[in-house]
Design brief:
97 residues; mainly alpha; two-stranded parallel sheet; elongated
Length: 97
């Protein structure tokens, strides 16, 4: 009986450890996902909009690019956008980006 109880305890411990690792991985994935945002640009938008939905899209690609943080996505609607786009704050020649 003692061996059987010890085996059950080891199995329970292994199962608990496995569940803990799964939960930890899930929380890491969720926290990464929660910080990412999607911004939208289309020809009917306004740069004064929030840019967080198609209905409240930005008008210019530059405004969308300026709103981006690491991990974010910029969805650009159909049309021609005659503008120069620059991404600022990406680092310097001395610093790896």
């Amino acid at each position: 009986m003692t061996n059987m109880t010890a085996t059950k305890r080891r199995t329970l411990l292994i199962t608990s450890s496995t569940n803990f690792m799964k939960l930890t991985l899930l929380l890491i994935l969720l926290s990464t996902t929660l910080h990412a945002a999607e911004f939208f640009v289309n020809k009917q938008g306004l740069d004064s909009n929030a840019g967080t939905s198609r209905a409240a899209a930005f008008l210019t690609i530059q405004k969308g690019v300026d709103a981006l943080q690491p991990g974010d996505t910029l969805s650009i609607g159909r049309g021609e956008y005659a503008e120069a786009v620059a991404r600022k704050g990406l680092g310097s020649a001395e610093k790896e980006t």
